Amino acid sequence: MNAPAGIRLDPSQRPLFRAPEPVNAPGGLQQSHFRLMVVMMLFMLVTLAVALRLMQFAVFGNGDAGIAAAPTQARADILDRNGIPLATTIKAWSIAINPQAVLGDKAQLARDLAALIPEKSEADYRKILFSKKKFVYLKEEAVPALVARVHALGEPAIMELRVPERLYPQAALAGHLLGYSQLVADAKGKEELTGIGIERYFDKQLSAGESVQLSIDTRVQAALESEIARRIAETTAAGGAGVILDVHTGEVIALASLPDINPNAHAHYNNVDMANKVTQSAFELGSTFKMLTFANAIEHGVLTDMSQRWDVSAPIRIGSHSIHDDEPMHRQITTPEVMTYSSNIGTAKIAELVGEARVRTFFQKLGFFDRTNIELRERGAPIVPRDWGRSTVMTTAFGHGIAVTPLHLAQAYAALANGGIFHPATLVKHKPGEKIVGKRVVSEATSARMRQLMRLVVLQGTGTNADAPGLRVGGKTGTAEKVVNGRYVKNANVTTFAGAFPMEDPRYVVLVVMDDAKAIKAAPGIQSTYGFKTAGWMTAPLAKRVIRRVGPLLGVRPELNRDIDVSDLMPLLLEKKVPGKNAYE
Amino acid sequence: MIAQRFRSIGWVAGCAAAALCCYLASQSVASERAALTRVDREIASTQSEIRRLTTEIAARGRMGQIERWNRDVLALQAPAPVQFVADEVQLASLAGGKPLPLDPAIVASKGATQTVAYQSAASQPAAPTAASADPMLRSATFVRPKLTVLEAPAVTGVVKANFVRSKPFELDLDSDPAPVAPKPAAKPKAIEAKASEASATVKKAGGDVTAKAAADLAKKVVADVKAKAKPMLTASLLPSDLGSLIAAEKKGASPARTPAKR
User: Fold this and answer.
1) For chain A, what percent of residues have pLDDT higher than 90?
2) A330 in a structural domain
3) What separation in angstroms does the CA of A474 have from each of A501, B46, B58?
4) CATH number of the domain within which A546 lies
5) Would you call B67 and A167 a contact, using CB atoms and an 8 Å cutoff?
6) Are residues A225 and A352 in the same domain?
7) Quick check: A318 contacting B, CB < 8 Å?
8) Would strands A239-246 and A252-258 be described as parallel, antiparallel, or unpaired?
9) B173 burial via Cβ count (<10 Å: 0-12, 13-18, 19+)
10) pLDDT tens for residues B222-237?
11) Same domain, residue pair A242 and A344
């Protein structure tokens, strides 16, 4: 080290072993002094630089450690309520080439590539290889075997790249719900985010690496989808949909819309397939609305006496329209019978007593005039009447002239069943201790009566085919004529079953809808529906199958010696059904 | 003086040593850091491998696939209410309602307890089949979920699989006595004794009867005894409802071979 202490600048103290300076050159001495100073400064600078660099290494490391250890920011996973991945990001292979850097024979390479990746012809590859481009994808989403074979060609211009790719391990399961999200360039070349489902709704969060845990239970979702698909096949229906809600939190446990889509190949579907029938499509859901009318009437003291009798022997005429029953009773029926026979006339009379203002307010409270708050962009707006005359009040009472999405109705049924609290449906799992949003729409007492009536419909009314053994199912069927291009189609129905279980302390709401299900003729292994294509024969058996499968999965044990007490209503039913007779499996 | 002269060199040496120490320290820190980075990389790579494998398992065992397996092979169905046990009493009732063994001391002091008839509750679920004379056979019965695979009655199949080869009820004692005859040594002796007794009777009856005729008669008696022995042997090994079993056999059901037809 050239420490400055070793140099004596005073000429008198200069070391003796050195030759004396020539006396005749005083200016030369000064010059050499200056030079020495410069050299010394240079040495000092170099030493300082080395020392600083060493210190930098010691303190901050050698610089590349941070880059190597940083995790790559991949799009985060979507998980179900039990932590099972529904969407994840994997590293997929892609093969690309830099045509400018090709060393070998381009014609031969084009031939080899055409043999290995036959999606393009040899001429296409030749065009790529002789182009002026510097980067061209030869194959995206390549399988490892193909990558190995392309690698074996030994061409250094070929690049094998690992690119992140979104994968949905459960394939088409919950396809509509998961959806997809991608950037698409519009006409001006500006990139725009498109897509559907959770992927699109939570795009920012997922891109930032934060995973989303859904309220969906994969097992229940699979059971719901498979049973709806089976029923669609049996009844050659145009489609089907279903939703299962937790009545106490509003969490969506399963949500299915069939025909389904596979988000792994979302590009193959058109907009009609992409439509989510549960959250987006508004249907007239028919007689399932009678439960709402009854709840409203009981809540406002219109129905105080269940033994009250209603004359349903003659249709009601309003202007050119008439309200009639599908199975006219030709006698006076009690209030529970209005429900079990699903009498339009009886319900219309009750709604008239409730009055327009209270009907509208009730629908408003149940959110029927707005879109739902579910975490999806595909939320359909309900179709509600513009003017609320006498006929509107009467027809909406049994679900005609008003169209809402199945999710709207499921939310309303959850409120009727759970003690009267309306919880907006959500797809995100509730964290323990998190406050649950809710507002009261009917009283506890009204809800208790509604639970009895729901069970009564399944025990004695139109919903007997939904009675899953031991699971205490309650609910209401609804059959409405299908609307195509704004017109009713006479021979096509939208059939619905909305219900809850177990009825003595409801935990889950199940709503299933079938679009244009057709009557089944008896065949080996297939039970006839005796020409009926109403909800009691089309959708109620579906609800039974679904509940029988998902009940034990959701921790509801089938028990034959347990049920809600309906003994005070039973005597009011004049004709009773024999349990199990004509039961549809 | 010399110390004065060498002070500068001492400074240089000291500085050099200090710098060297610093450098060595920084070197060792750098090497530790590099090792740490390597471990981090390994962790990241292992995590990505775990993730890849988890994803592969999830994709291979997806619900749709399980559903397909269930439809094609397993044929499992949603559980019925009777398959759930609500409490300990219901669980205990499944054991067959056998009374617990009594304390010998109590039995000795109050002997009457032994004679008290105990009828188990009528609501107790009936056993799937009546109690068999041969419990070993029952335990071998295996009922599959798909009924189509068992075309013949289950009991017949088990009996045939266990005891019967091709023609179950025509056992020939002479040719193959080993698998079924319970006392192969004792029986021939008895038969011979009876045969000699018969020939003695013949001799007593008249002197004009030839020795050959006597021998024929003896053979006939042996055959009779063999014939009598047959049902006794089979009855001891086969279930009590032999009649229905044989009837099923005669109908042409061939349960031992049914699995091959699947």
Assistant:
1) 66
2) yes
3) 6, 51, 36
4) 3.40.710.10
5) no
6) yes
7) no
8) antiparallel
9) middle
10) 666 555 544 443 333 4
11) yes
Q: What ipTM was reported for this prediction?
A: 0.74
Residue A575 is predicted with a pLDDT of: 83
Range(s) of the domain holding residue A565: 220-572
Q: Cβ of A1 and B16 within 8 Å?
A: yes
Residue owning tokens 């394939």: A171
Mutation for A interface: B5, B46, B62, most A CBs within 10 A: B62
The answer on A328 and A391 residing in a single domain is yes
Cβ proximity of A325 and A348 under 8 Å: no
A193 and A283 in a common domain: no
Cβ–Cβ contact A549 with B under 8 A: yes
| CB pair distance less than 8 Å for A169 and B37 | no
Active site residue A32: no
* Least confident span in A77-86, A198-207, B101-110, B241-250: B241-250
Answer yes or no: do A282 and A327 share one domain. Answer: yes
- Over residues B171-220, the pLDDT tens digits come to 444 444 444 444 444 444 545 555 555 544 444 444 444 556 666 766 77
Residues of B in contact with A226 (CB under 8 A): 67
Distance from CA of B261 to the nearest CA of A (A): 22
Catalytic one among A257, A281, A287, A447? A287
Which residue is listed with tokens 């889950």?
Answer: A508
Whether A243 is in a domain gets the answer yes
Q: Residue A94 is part of a domain; what is its CATH number?
A: 3.90.1310.10
- A513 touches A283 (CB < 8 A): yes
Which runs of consecutive H residues, i.e. helices, occur in A427-469? 444-460
As a whole number of angstroms, the distance between CA A353 and CA A526 comes to 45
How many domains does chain A fold into?
2
Q: Which residues contact B52 (CB under 8 A, 6 or more apart)?
A: A90, A91
Chain A residue numbers touching B64 (CB-CB < 8 A):
170-173, 222
pLDDT of A10 over the 90 cut:
no
Residue of chain A with shortest Cα separation from B54: A85
Looking at A180, A213, A246, which one is the last position of a domain?
A: A213
Question: Measured between alpha carbons, how far is residue A578 from residues A24, A457, A461, A581 in Å?
Answer: 139, 14, 11, 6
Q: Are residues A162 and A265 in the same domain?
A: no
Residue B46 forms contact with A (CB below 8 Å): no
Between CA B201 and CA B203 the distance in angstroms is 5
Residue ending a domain, among A161, A188, A213, is A213
C-beta atoms of B59 and A54 within 8 A: no
Is pLDDT at B261 greater than 60 in this prediction? no
A74 interfacial to chain B (CB closer than 8 Å): no
Residue-averaged pLDDT of chain B:
64
- Is A155 a member of any domain? yes
Indicate the pairing of strand A252-258 with strand A487-501.
unpaired
- Same domain, yes or no: A454 and A431: yes
Q: Which amino acid is at A501?
A: F
Beta strands, E only, B115-193: none
Nearest chain B alpha carbon to A168: B59
Selecting from B29, B37, B67 the residue whose C-beta is nearest the C-beta of A222 gives B67
Q: Is the pLDDT at B221 greater than 90, yes or no?
A: no
Between B34, B64, B80, which is nearest A173 by CB? B64
Query: Which of A207, A203, A193 shows the shortest CA–CA distance to A73?
Result: A207
Residue in chain B closest to A169 (alpha carbons) equals B59
